[in-house]
Amino acid sequence: MKISATSKDLTAGLLFLAAGAFILYSAVQFRIGTPRVMGPGFFPAMLGGLLIVLALITILRSFGRRDEGGTAVRMRPVLFILGAAASFGLLIKPAGLLIAVFGTVVIASFASNDLRLRDAVIVGVILAGLSALVFVELLGQRLPLLGTVFG
To answer: Of 4, 41, 61, 104, which sits 20 to 30 A from 90 (CA to CA)?
Structure first.
């Protein structure tokens, strides 16, 4: 019986391990505290630790499976989703929350082969409005609704 790691599971496990180690290392720079009196590093430390546990489970499982063969990575969805996330970061300050959320939703919708621009615009408007309601009104976050470009 030949034991080999599936490349997808092993790669995912190693990426989870690296991310978890980075998060845990960053979290211990802050006061951790206790579960009763949590410090600012407590929650990130817990998440980093859980990600490391998930990574180890994924890596161990990769050795018990047969490799199904490689599947091609479709670049269109990857590029549009990454572009949507980047656009939010680039738009939030100069354009404000409403435009940033709307732009993110519309750009992310191009990742799908079944793009309906009208639907993306409707969802973008709804999510922008809900984001403003939740974050600005209900949670009291100091986010500009329309940024310096429009204000």
So the answer is: 41
Cα dihedral 88→90→91→97 (10° resolution): 50
- Is the full-model pTM beyond 0.70? no
Look at the alpha carbons of 74, 75, 76, 78 in this order and tell me if their dihedral is positive or negative.
Answer: positive
- 72 and 64 Cβ atoms separated by less than 8 Å: no
Distances 6 to 11, 32, 124 between C-alpha atoms, Å: 8, 36, 39
Q: Tell me phi and psi for residue 36, to 5 degrees.
A: -80, -40
Handedness of CA 103, 105, 110, 114 (dihedral sign): negative
Q: How far is residue 56's CA from residue 85's CA, in Å, rounded to a whole number? A: 28
Specify the DSSP element, H or E, that contains 135: none
Q: Would you give the distance in Å from CA 56 to the centre of its chain?
A: 21
